[in-house]
């Protein structure tokens, strides 16, 4: 994600600053500039039947590179950079108690952050709403079509609240315009259309893209490492990801068969 790139740039700037202030008499060679962090995301799935994440390190068919049992079978899986270190890690939202359980590594263990936020019937969404490099929590409430977004992964009130979308919409989130902040969107299942908004506020869609087939699950990711998150879908009957590198109609840029029939698709920069 863009936030990853920004964090890398900040780290590089910090190194350069330290060099400028260091005494030159030491004779120590100047460190090589660090290469920009890889912001490319790859696919993964959460298998409901065994409450396990199967994460893949490339957008190609094959075995999972990382397998992590985490959460309960009733949970909704999540992925994000909860601690701002450039790596996306796993998390879940438990509908029964409206609680997020976020883990800072893609390994088994207890949640590093637990946040009570939203109601049991809410749909979780996550993003870097304030552009500071960390992914934080949010929910979409279908009953009133309101988004509730929070800028920290802690229990507390929403920092941003607004209405958007229609009753049949599935909420999504991404950095559509590459400015470093995540904003919302929806996928309208009956007409297989993405509606994208470049600010977290009420107003018209900034982009409308027809993409996918009936029964597809929408997915958002940055598959090519440019500054933009883009739309994609996962098709359950043939367990195939249809990844697109532009927020425009067209054919998938990458097609990957991966996962199983009860799986939920994910995207992340896993390692
Ligand atoms: Ca992280
Ligand atoms: Ca943030
Ligand atoms: Ca943005
Ligand atoms: Ca991209």
Automatic annotation (TrEMBL):
Alphabetically sorted, this entry's keywords are: Signal
Does the keyword section mention Metal-binding? no
Fetch the InterPro entries from UniProt: Integrin_alpha_N
Q: Which residues form the signal peptide?
A: 1-27
Query: Could you confirm whether the keyword Glycoprotein appears in this record?
Result: no
| Protein name per UniProt | VCBS repeat-containing protein
């Amino acid at each position: 994600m863009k936030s990853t790139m920004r964090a890398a740039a900040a780290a590089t700037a910090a190194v350069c600053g330290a060099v400028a202030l260091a005494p030159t008499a030491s004779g120590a060679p100047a460190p090589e500039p660090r290469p920009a962090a890889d912001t490319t995301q790859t696919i993964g799935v959460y298998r409901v039947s065994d409450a396990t994440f199967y994460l893949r390190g490339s957008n190609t068919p094959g075995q999972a590179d990382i397998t992590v049992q985490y959460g309960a079978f009733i949970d909704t899986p999540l992925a994000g950079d909860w601690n701002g270190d450039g790596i996306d890690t796993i998390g879940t939202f438990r509908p029964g108690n409206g609680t997020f359980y976020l883990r800072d590594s893609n390994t088994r263990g207890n949640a590093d952050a637990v946040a009570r936020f939203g109601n049991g019937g809410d749909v979780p969404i996550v993003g870097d709403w304030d552009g500071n490099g960390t992914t934080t929590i949010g929910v979409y409430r279908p009953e009133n079509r309101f988004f509730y977004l929070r800028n920290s992964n802690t229990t507390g009130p929403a920092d941003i609240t607004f209405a958007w979308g229609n009753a049949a919409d599935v909420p999504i989130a991404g950095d559509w315009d590459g400015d470093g902040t995540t904003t919302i969107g929806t996928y309208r299942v009956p007409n297989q259309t993405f509606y994208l908004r470049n600010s977290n506020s009420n107003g018209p869609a900034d982009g409308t893209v027809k993409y996918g087939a009936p029964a597809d699950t929408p997915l958002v990711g940055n598959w090519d490492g440019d500054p933009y998150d883009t739309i994609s879908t996962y098709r359950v009957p043939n367990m195939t990801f249809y990844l697109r590198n532009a927020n425009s109609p067209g054919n998938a840029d990458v097609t990957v068969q991966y996962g199983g029939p009860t799986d939920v698709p994910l995207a992340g920069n896993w390692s």
